[in-house]
C-alpha cells in the first residue's frame, strides 16, 4: 500500500471513530467521563453482544449471568441488559454501522485495535470513575489486566478466557499402557504417547486444530520465538525459533501422531471418545465432562507442553468486555453491569457454569466462592497456575487486523498439514504482513 493510500485509510478510520463517538458525553479535565443518575423507576436499557450466548456449551451459563444481574443489581439500580447473540462477531459491527445502540461487546483480543480505531470503542479510564475503577480492579489477576491494553490504556477488560489445556481420555491412555495421572510434559512426550495410543487402540492419539487461532502463539513463544514485536510494527513468527516449533507440529502430522481436522471436527472426535489427547480451552470442559460421563471414560488434563527443559508460555483464549456507551446515563449503567459480571458473583457463575477461568483467583480457595467446585474439578488448578506466566495473545495493528489474522492462520495451517517448507511458508506471510504495517 502506498503512503498516500495509508494516509487516506488512517484518516477515514479516524473520522469514523470520531463520528461514532461524537454523541458521547464530554470528558472532564481529568479525561474521566460524566456519570449520569440512574433511576429504578425508569430503568436504562443497555445492549450486550455476546458470542457465548450462541454456543451450546456456554449459552445457559451466560443467560444465568445476565438474568441474575437484571433481577438483582439491575433492578435495584435501574438498569436492564438486553442480550444479543453474536456467534460470528459480526452482528455488533453491522448494528453499529446501522446506527443502533451497541453498548458492551464480548470482544475477541486480536481485533481490538481495529474496533478502537474504527467503531468508537472507548478506554475504561475515559468512561468510568477513576477511583471506582481502581478499586474494582483489585483482586483481578494482574496479568489478566494487561491483556486488553493498547498504548497504556484499557480498551478491554479481560472477561472470559482460558489457558491451553491438554484434555486426556483416561481409558485410551490405559488401553495403551499409559498412566493419565502422570501426563505428558513435553512435546516429545506428546508424540510418543500419541503413537502408542494409535498403535494400541487404532484411534488418533492427539489433536490441535491448525486454525485454533491462539494456542499456536503459545507454542511459538514456548520455544523462545516471538509472534508480534513489542512495538507492533513487525511480525516475528518466521524467525528460527518459531519455525522450529511449527516444524515439530508438522512432524506430528507426517508421522501419524496427529488427528486431521478443524476445531469443531477435533472437538467432536474427542468428545466421542475417539482421540487420546486434545488441546483446547476450558470453555469446552462442561461439554467434555458430560460426554465422558455418557461414554464411560474419565477425563484428565494437563497444561501446555514444553520444549525440552524450557517452561511453556501459554497465551489466553476468549474475550474481553469492550464498551462504547453514548451518554452519561449509559456510562453509569454499563459500569454497574461490568462490576457485576467481573466481580465475585460473576466469576463464580462464569467458572462453575461456563468453564472459564475465575480471574478473581482468590475465589478458588474461598469456601463461599469456588473452592468446592475447584476441589471437585482440579483441572482448574492447572489453568490458574498457567495464568501466573501467561503472555498476552497478539492484538494485531488495527488497520490490518483482519488481513493479518487471515495471513497468519493460513500460513500456519499450510505449514502444519502439508509438506511445504515451513520456513519459506512463514517467511512469505511475514513479508506480506510487514509490508503492510511498516
Summarize the structure in words.
The chain has 438 residues and is α/β, with parallel strands linked by helices. It has helices at residues 3-21, 59-71, 73-77, 91-97, 112-118, 130-137, 142-145, 170-175, 187-201, 215-222, 240-254, 263-271, 285-295, 328-341, 344-354, 371-376, 379-387, 401-417, 422-437; strands at residues 44-50, 79-85, 104-108, 149-150, 153-154, 157-158, 165-169, 204-207, 275-280, 299-303, 319-323. The chain has a 5-stranded mixed beta sheet with strand order 2-1-3-11-6.
What brief labels describe this structure?
about 450 residues; alpha/beta; four-stranded mixed beta sheet; disordered N terminus
Brief summary:
The protein has 438 residues and is α/β, with parallel strands linked by helices.
Assembly state of the chains shown = single chain
Identify low-pLDDT runs: 1-30
Mean pLDDT: 91
Structural class: alpha/beta
Shape: globular
Strand content: 5-15%
Q: What is the terminal separation in angstroms?
A: 10 Å
What's the Cα radius of gyration? 22 Å
Q: Helix-strand pattern, N to C? A: HEHHEHEHHHEEEEHHEHHHEHEEHHHHHH
Spatial sequence of strands, sheet with the most strands: 2-1-3-11-6
Give the number of DSSP strands: 11
Number of helical regions = 19
Described by strand count, sense and barrel closure, the largest sheet is: 5 strands, mixed
Helix content: 40-55%
Amino acid at each position: 500500500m502506498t503512503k498516500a493510500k495509508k494516509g487516506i485509510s488512517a484518516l477515514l478510520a479516524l473520522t469514523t471513530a470520531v463520528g461514532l463517538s461524537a454523541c458521547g458525553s464530554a470528558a472532564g479535565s481529568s479525561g474521566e467521563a460524566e456519570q449520569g443518575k440512574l433511576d429504578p423507576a425508569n430503568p436504562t436499557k443497555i445492549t450486550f453482544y455476546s458470542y457465548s450466548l450462541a454456543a451450546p456449551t456456554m449459552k445457559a451459563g451466560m443467560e444465568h449471568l445476565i438474568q441474575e444481574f437484571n433481577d438483582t443489581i439491575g433492578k435495584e439500580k435501574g438498569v436492564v441488559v438486553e442480550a444479543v447473540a453474536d456467534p460470528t462477531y459480526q452482528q455488533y459491527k453491522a448494528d453499529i454501522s446501522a446506527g443502533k445502540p451497541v453498548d458492551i461487546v464480548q470482544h475477541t483480543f486480536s481485533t481490538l485495535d481495529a474496533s478502537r480505531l474504527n467503531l468508537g470503542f472507548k478506554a475504561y479510564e475515559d468512561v468510568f470513575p477513576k477511583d471506582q475503577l481502581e478499586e474494582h480492579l483489585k483482586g483481578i489477576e494482574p496479568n489478566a489486566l494487561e491483556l486488553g491494553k493498547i498504548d497504556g490504556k484499557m480498551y478491554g477488560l479481560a472477561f472470559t478466557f482460558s489457558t491451553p489445556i491438554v484434555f486426556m481420555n483416561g481409558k485410551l491412555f490405559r488401553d495403551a499402557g499409559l498412566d493419565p495421572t502422570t501426563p505428558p510434559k513435553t512435546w516429545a512426550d506428546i508424540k510418543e504417547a500419541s503413537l502408542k495410543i494409535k498403535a494400541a487402540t487404532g484411534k488418533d492419539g492427539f489433536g490441535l486444530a491448525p486454525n485454533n487461532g491462539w494456542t499456536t502463539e503459545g507454542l511459538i513463544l514456548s520455544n523462545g520465538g516471538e509472534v508480534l514485536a513489542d512495538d507492533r510494527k513487525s511480525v516475528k513468527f518466521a524467525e528460527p525459533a518459531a519455525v522450529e516449533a511449527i516444524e515439530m507440529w508438522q512432524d506430528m502430522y507426517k508421522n501419524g501422531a496427529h488427528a486431521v481436522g478443524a476445531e469443531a471436527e477435533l472437538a467432536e472426535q474427542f468428545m466421542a471418545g475417539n482421540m487420546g489427547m486434545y488441546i483446547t480451552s476450558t470453555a469446552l470442559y462442561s461439554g467434555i465432562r458430560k460426554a465422558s460421563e455418557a461414554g464411560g471414560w474419565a477425563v484428565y488434563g494437563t497444561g501446555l507442553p514444553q520444549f525440552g527443559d524450557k517452561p511453556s508460555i501459554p497465551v489466553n483464549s476468549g474475550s474481553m468486555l469492550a464498551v462504547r456507551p453514548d451518554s452519561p446515563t449509559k456510562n453509569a449503567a454499563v459500569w454497574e453491569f461490568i462490576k457485576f459480571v467481573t466481580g465475585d458473583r460473576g466469576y463464580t457463575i462464569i467458572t462453575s457454569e461456563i468453564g472459564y477461568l475465575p480471574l478473581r483467583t482468590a475465589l478458588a480457595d474461598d469456601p463461599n466462592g469456588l473452592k468446592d467446585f475447584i476441589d471437585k474439578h482440579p483441572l482448574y488448578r492447572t489453568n490458574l497456575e498457567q495464568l501466573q506466566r501467561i503472555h498476552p495473545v497478539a492484538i494485531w495493528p488495527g488497520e490490518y487486523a483482519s488481513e493479518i489474522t487471515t495471513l497468519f492462520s493460513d500460513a500456519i495451517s499450510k505449514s502444519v498439514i502439508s509438506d511445504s517448507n515451513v520456513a519459506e511458508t512463514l517467511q512469505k506471510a511475514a513479508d506480506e504482513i510487514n509490508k503492510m504495517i511498516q
